[in-house]
Amino acid sequence: MTGVPLILFASLAGLLIGSFLNVCVFRMPRDLSVVHPRSFCPGCEKQIAWYDNIPLLSFFLLGRRCRHCHESIPWRYPLVELITMIFFGLCAAAFGWKPELAKWVLYSAILIELTASDLECRILPDEFTLGGTLVGLVCALFIEMPPFILTYLIPISYAARWRWLAESAFAAAFGGGAIWLLAALYEKVRHREGMGLGDVKMIAMIGAFMGVQWVLLTLMLASLIGSISGLIYLKATKQDAATYELPFGSFLGGTALAVMFGTQIWPKLLGH
Fold first, then answer.
1. Could you tell me which residues come within 8 angstroms of residue 60 by beta carbon, excluding any fewer than 6 positions away?
2. Is the whole model's pTM more than 0.85, yes or no?
3. For each of the chain's 272 residues, which pLDDT tens digit applies?
4. Less crowded by CB within 10 Å, the N or C end of the chain?
5. Torsion of CA 118, 132, 165, 179, to 10 degrees
């Protein structure tokens, strides 16, 4: 399966995975199982029939409301499904049926879930941050990582995969450790938390997938965009900056998706 059939298959898979990510966004912060019970309406708690649970399509057929209680369905549901579908299709178009396809669709799905979860609930589940870090490390055993320091320190007699794994682990530790240190210093000086551990774990996950260079770029861009957006939002809503909790994980996720597209997908698409 190659070309257009693979892209269509990957896009359909993205729709289905996006639907599952929506389940995770809603249930994980509430400590609910993601496999049982079947999908239900948060308003009336009635189970959703299969024909009302078709990714993307059912949202519009139902007029954005529950069939039973007519409560509004959040726009987050179709957006997560649509964005996941787009990124899965783009990855298929860029990489074809290669190991890189599995790596980048997994990475995009993790980022989309974390972005939506932090925006909606201010929670970054360990299953996706720590679990995602582990997935990134495993991927490094099979797919080349950008060379940084350890590539040149590890003897050439070692298999390439061990150098890739070392770069992935270093990027995870460096990215997460650096931001943890900054957050600890901020808390010591300002006597209030500046960044949660969830953000630290998420940055480590991004490093495990992308390497040192790209995790640093992601962190710098997300900090800049988050700061400007946060100031604009606080001015517009007149909220207290001391009590407002910025969903930094959402800015990290959105920026990481953009960096992934710009550095991994777009060059491959142009190369085709």
1. 78
2. yes
3. 568 899 999 999 999 999 999 999 999 998 999 988 888 888 888 899 888 899 999 999 999 999 989 999 999 999 999 999 999 999 999 999 999 999 999 999 999 999 999 999 999 999 999 999 999 999 999 999 988 877 777 777 778 899 999 999 999 999 998 888 877 776 677 666 666 789 999 999 999 999 999 999 999 999 899 889 888 877 887 777 666 777 889 999 999 999 999 999 999 998 85
4. C
5. 20
* Distance (Å, whole) CA 57 – CA 55: 6
Specify which residues 40 forms β-bridges with.
Answer: 47
Instruction: Identify whether the C-beta of residue 136 lies closer than 8 Å to the C-beta of residue 110.
Output: no
d(CA 104, CA 110): 10
Tracing tokens 């992601």 back to the chain, one arrives at 218
Find residue 47's DSSP bridge partners: 40
